[in-house]
Amino acid sequence: MGRHVPAVTRALDILELFLEGDGTLSAPDITRKLGLPRTTVHELVTTLAARNYLVTVPEQQGRYRLGVRTYQLGSRYAEQLDLAAEGQQVAREVAETCDETVHVAVLEDTDVIYIAKVDSTHAVRMVSAAGRKLPAHCTSVGKMLLASLPEAELRSRIDGRELVAMTPHSITDPEALQQALAAIRTRGLATEHRESNPDVSCVAAPVRDSAGRVVAALSVSVPMIRWSEQREAELAELAAKGAADLSLRLGHRSRQA
To answer: How many CB atoms lie within 10 A of CB 168?
Structure first.
């Protein structure tokens, strides 16, 4: 784990002070509350104001409040919360149809994070949890998300990275991964067979936002005892429909619409 950068920590400490009281502070207030040198506070406040994280209060000379940049960050966070909430609802609907475990996940660097999950009611089922992080190349949702990246961004994320194996079936060769992602782009769906769990296979479809960008993926996971070519085809159709429904909730409109 990398070390914390003191200047960044201090800047964040300053921003968090504005969550208290009436939301306005002067440089002397910040100096007193944080116990920092006046020069350091002045430099940090000046930098934050230059980047629109802080703005001066017109009617109160020398006082600051949070700027528009913090609102933009908060709005983006709210959008992600909406994705999680809508994803949970759609995952529940898909799970009720097939009675298998359904996930919605997003990409973080070279990992996926599950932001929504609904379990199967079968005694034998996949065991996982929302918030879990897994290597993207080992999962159907992760491969779907990697395949949706522009080529340059994809290479910047995976070139030089070790492709760790979660099972003997995981893809660990970069060229093999590139071939798998190319096939996913052509098909528009991703599958994985025992690559993240030796007893489970999954199929995933892309979730798009109002601008048409792939922002998540929805998958259906099935124990191998219930997996077959016919079942894969059925679940692929359900995953695609669920992903399309979630995309619609996020404001996406297909070209045919």
So the answer is: 9
Coil, helix or strand at residue 245: helix
Cβ burial of 121 (10 Å; 0-12, 13-18, 19+) is exposed
Q: Of 147, 228, 218, 227, nearest to 188 (Cα)?
A: 147
Which residues have a Cβ under 8 Å from the Cβ of 14 and sit 6 or more positions away? 30, 34, 41, 44, 45, 48
Which pTM does this prediction carry? 0.68
How far apart are alpha carbons 155 and 152 in whole angstroms? 5
Say which residues have a Cβ less than 8 Å from residue 7's Cβ, sequence separation at least 6.
44
Helix ranges (DSSP H) in 105-173? 140-147, 151-158
Half-sphere exposure of 116 (CA within 13 A, CB side): 26
E strands, the chain, in order: 25-26, 54-56, 63-66, 101-108, 111-118, 133-135, 190-193, 200-208, 214-223
Q: Compute CA 211 distance to the chain's CA centroid, rounded to the nearest angstrom.
A: 17
Cβ proximity of 149 and 142 under 8 Å: no
pLDDT (tens place) for every residue of the chain, 257 residues total: 578 899 999 999 999 999 888 899 999 999 999 999 999 999 999 999 999 999 999 888 899 999 999 988 877 776 776 888 899 999 999 999 998 999 999 999 899 999 998 887 764 445 555 667 899 999 999 999 999 999 999 998 888 888 999 999 999 999 999 999 999 999 999 999 999 999 899 999 999 998 899 999 999 999 988 888 888 899 999 999 999 999 998 888 765 44
